[in-house]
Specification:
Elements: E1 8-11, H1 18-24, E2 29-46, E3 52-70, H2 75-82, E4 87-95, E5 100-107, H3 119-131, H4 136-143
Antiparallel strand pairs: 1-3, 2-3, 2-4, 4-5
């Protein structure tokens, strides 16, 4: 076992990127790649910026790759502030060596949003997936996900 479930976090979204998570929660440490079995990835969590963010939901026969992190004592309170609308739930993930590890992850259980993620947001996911050596097929799947440019890049003055 890597650590207690109270300290381990499974990131499947933008927090897979070390730069992003370390900026949010200084002192966290990466434990490596893992897969969440019988869950699916979606971009259906509505965001205040008008886009959709990554989400996971149970679905037999699917899996989601991500990164296991150990958080410092104050880590959850800091991270919760960056994850409005999500609920933190305990789950088990499997490392590359098939060790079962208890973690917590964020999931959104509300009404789905209708817009694709912004291109810059998806770049955090693909950067994190490549950085931590997630399977090539998973990285390719992320890179193929439909995105949209932020409003400011589409000629709108509304921005975020």
């Amino acid at each position: 076992m890597l650590d207690t479930v109270d300290r381990l976090y499974f990131a499947y979204g933008s927090n897979m990127s070390s730069a992003r998570l370390l900026a949010r929660v200084p002192g966290c440490a990466v434990h490596g790649a893992a897969r969440l079995v019988d869950w699916r990835l979606a971009f259906d969590k509505p965001s205040r910026d008008g886009s959709a963010k990554a989400n996971v939901a149970p679905l037999i026969g699917h899996l989601v790759w991500g990164v296991v992190w150990s958080l410092p004592e104050s880590g959850w309170s800091r991270l919760d502030g960056f994850e409005p609308g999500y609920e933190r739930v305990p789950c088990d993930v499997f490392t590359r060596s098939d060790d079962r590890v208890g973690v917590q992850l964020y999931t959104y259980r509300g009404a789905p949003g209708g817009h694709p993620p912004f291109d810059w947001y998806l770049a955090h996911l693909t950067d994190g997936a490549e950085e931590h050596g997630l399977p090539d097929a998973w990285v390719a799947r992320l890179k193929a996900w439909p995105t949209r440019a932020p409003a400011s890049e589409r000629g709108s003055s509304t921005g975020r």
